[in-house]
Write a structure and sequence with these properties.
With 237 residues, this protein is mainly alpha-helical. The chain contains nine helices and three strands; from the N terminus they run ααβββααααααα.
Length: 237
């Protein structure tokens, strides 16, 4: 429902505001590392994202997180670098995942879905206008729960699975050991003290995620070894 050009322009403005309102890391070595990793993955992803002007920023935040926005704006929290202990393979796994979200146009799809769900709510309210207040409230609550649990959350988990799959291959094709994705998600799994049921979550269960990545590891390792040889480097055993 939304043009890619519009989203890229909006993302650029929002990213500029984030750099003003949030603390940007002054750790030069961290920024150089993130740019180096990001540029290698972007080079691989250019087949899916031609003409994208990438920008990589490290935010001084403890939460181990990263994101990528339409138009090529990528942010990595310093907490993610700390959790990965500076392991470039692990960091590349996360950045590959986030860049894959952009390649799949997931931001556009989520916004379009939200607009569709909101429109459905308007239609429901119009159809129920002659009903009692309590009936309207029950119908609205049922619609909200149904659209969230039945549509929005499964859709989000599907997008995460797509980004896991392509992101794993992006990092491998860029010459980063894809096994870093497994070690990173095991660290994330160990940090999670409380786990909600997967059907109530926007993301796959960490254990399921690790199993999915493992099921694609042979192909990813083959791509990784090809990339390392092409770069004149020796792959990890």
């Amino acid at each position: 429902m939304i043009s890619d050009e519009y989203l890229a322009n909006q993302s650029s403005r929002q990213f500029s505001e984030m750099k003003k309102s949030q603390a940007v890391s002054r750790n030069t070595s961290d920024l150089q590392m993130i740019r180096r990793i990001g540029e290698r993955i972007a080079q691989v992803a250019k087949v899916d994202l031609p003409g994208t002007r990438w920008e990589f920023v490290v935010f001084d935040k403890a939460e181990p997180n990263a994101f990528a926005m339409p138009g090529g704006k990528v942010g990595v929290n310093s907490g993610l670098i700390t959790l990965a202990n500076g392991n470039e393979d692990e960091i590349a796994a996360v950045m590959g995942h986030e860049i894959a979200h952009v390649a799949f146009r997931h931001g556009n799809k989520r916004m379009s879905q939200a607009m569709g769900i909101a429109l459905g709510g308007v239609i429901l309210n119009t159809a129920m206008r002659d009903k009692s207040k309590s009936d309207r409230a029950l119908a609205g609550g049922a619609y909200g729960i149904g659209s969230t649990v039945g549509v929005a959350l499964p859709f989000s988990r599907t997008q995460e699975r797509e980004a896991d799959h392509r992101g794993l291959f992006y990092s491998a094709m860029a010459g980063f050991d894809p096994r870093g994705a497994i070690s990173f998600w095991k660290k994330m799994q160990s940090r999670s003290k409380r786990r909600m049921p997967q059907f109530l979550s926007t993301h796959p269960n960490p254990g399921n995620r690790i199993e999915f990545l493992q099921s694609n590891m042979n192909r990813a390792l083959a791509l990784y070894r090809q990339a390392k040889i092409a770069r004149g480097e020796k792959p990890n055993p």
